[in-house]
Design brief:
Blueprint: E1 2-3, E2 12-17, E3 22-28, H1 32-39, H2 42-46, E4 49-55, H3 57-64, H4 68-89, E5 94-97, H5 102-109, E6 117-124, H6 155-162, H7 169-179, E7 184-185, H8 201-207, E8 214-215, H9 222-231, E9 244-245, E10 248-253, E11 262-267, E12 270-276, H10 280-286, H11 292-295, E13 298-304, H12 306-313, H13 316-338, E14 342-346, H14 350-357, E15 362-372, H15 391-398
Antiparallel strand pairs: 1-2, 1-4, 2-3, 4-6, 5-6, 7-9, 8-15, 10-11, 10-13, 11-12, 13-15, 14-15
């Protein structure tokens, strides 16, 4: 977090420790202008606080290998869904920046750019401009404790991340000019269903989790219609023009009131039906054979047409699509839990998803939404984390041996 002087928080570059729910000052002083220069975004210099989200490949790579690079952007997007919803609820403007000079931002927050690298910058609020600070801050004296005695290095992750690096503010500005040409119109959020739970966003965030088992029961229509309208709103960011999105959303519908089972595409606030029939088994198979893919009331496959995207934004455009998919999945989960249902993100067979929906778009992430088979235990408040219990009882149902689909 790069902050101005705030009540109870001195101007500095801080590290946020979630478990302790506290800030560790790393670099005293007002460094907003330096971050604004690296991001080629004057609004950062007037934001009281900007978040720099970073990813540590080893934290996902130990389980998912090179594919863990995508998980970093999915998880960052899920975090952003919470952050953007909370900022909106409190009337604070927010802007998500995927374009920035990678090495400069990494140096400012004290990460090496390889074992940990910046994923996104998020400016929150508006205030007075930052004071002038040195353009090139000194290296931080602090070092992070190792996550493992022998962490693995994933060369393909390093190559993928470095492929989209922007060296300076001029390159960021040029990249953003390409972003003005991409995307398609995003949908608008429809009215909240009457009689809906009016819990605060903080209560919903604590209630939300990853539903690991679902019952094959139908859910009310608004669990699809309202939730999808919430999830597919445009992200306030620098990677598309205002009101546009990089994503397409293809659905496998299994049990939603007033809707026949089948497949379709969510576009412009409604579901365009593609085919009718029971597709539960196919959806499960697309999700690496995971039961949640077919047990859900519906499963959404967040996709992006990569050819025009990569042509305009280079490989950094792939970062943006992965991040936006994480935001959509996170918003979809928040909406589902607001309606007292469940949701979880799933991985998938990439080419099989495109073939099944007959689209050239590539799948970025999948989200299953449905009726939970157990009562979720809410998380704890700030500084009071709740331990996950009973996961071992879920494991036999969750763990399956994926089989490659037949064509």
């Amino acid at each position: 977090m790069v902050t101005a002087d705030l009540p109870g928080v001195a101007a500095a570059v801080h590290h946020f420790a979630p478990l302790e729910f506290g800030l560790t000052p790393l670099r005293p002083g007002d460094w907003r202008a330096t971050l604004a220069g690296a991001a080629a975004e004057p609004a950062v210099a007037t934001a009281p606080v900007s978040f720099v989200l970073t990813g540590i490949p080893w934290r996902t790579g130990w389980k998912y290998g090179e594919r863990g690079w995508r998980h970093l952007y999915w998880d960052a997007g899920t975090l952003l869904a919470n952050l953007l919803a909370t900022a909106s609820a409190h009337g604070l403007p927010a802007r998500v920046l995927v374009g920035f000079a990678d090495a400069e931002v990494a140096h400012l927050v004290g990460v090496d750019g390889a074992e940990e690298f910046p994923l996104a910058v998020v400016a929150i609020g508006e205030d007075e401009p930052a004071s002038v600070v040195p353009e090139k801050p000194a290296p931080l004296p602090a070092t992070a404790a190792p996550l493992s005695p022998r962490p693995l290095v994933f060369p393909l992750v390093t190559e993928a991340q470095n492929g989209g690096v922007l060296p300076d503010a001029a390159a960021v500005t040029a990249w953003r000019s390409g972003a003005r040409t991409v995307g398609e119109p995003a949908g608008d959020e429809i009215e909240m269903p009457p009689g809906m739970d009016r819990s605060s966003i903080e209560e919903v965030v604590l209630r939300r989790g990853s539903t690991r088992r679902m019952r094959r029961e139908s859910v009310p229509a608004e669990v699809l219609t309202w939730a999808m309208s919430v999830a597919t709103r445009p992200v306030p960011g620098d990677f598309t023009p205002a009101g546009r999105t990089l994503l397409q959303h293809w659905l496998s519908v299994h049990g939603v009131a007033e809707m026949q089972p089948g497949t379709g595409r969510w576009r412009a606030g409604r579901l365009e039906t593609a085919r009718r029939g029971d597709v539960r088994a196919a959806a499960q198979q697309l999700c690496l054979g995971q039961p949640l893919g077919g047990d859900s009331a519906y499963t959404t496959f967040h996709c992006a047409d990569l050819e025009p995207l990569l042509r305009a934004l280079g490989s950094r455009g792939y970062r943006a699509a992965q991040l936006e998919a994480g935001v959509a999945a996170g918003r979809l989960a928040l909406a589902a839990f607001t309606l007292h249902c469940g949701a979880t993100g799933l991985t998938f067979f990439d080419e099989a998803v495109s073939a099944f929906f007959a689209t050239p778009a590539a799948c970025m992430l999948a989200t299953a939404v449905g009726a939970p088979a157990y009562r979720n235990r809410p998380g704890g408040g700030p500084g009071r984390p709740v331990e996950i219990v009973g996961f071992d009882r879920l494991s036999p149902r969750v763990r399956v041996r994926p089989r490659r689909p037949e064509h």
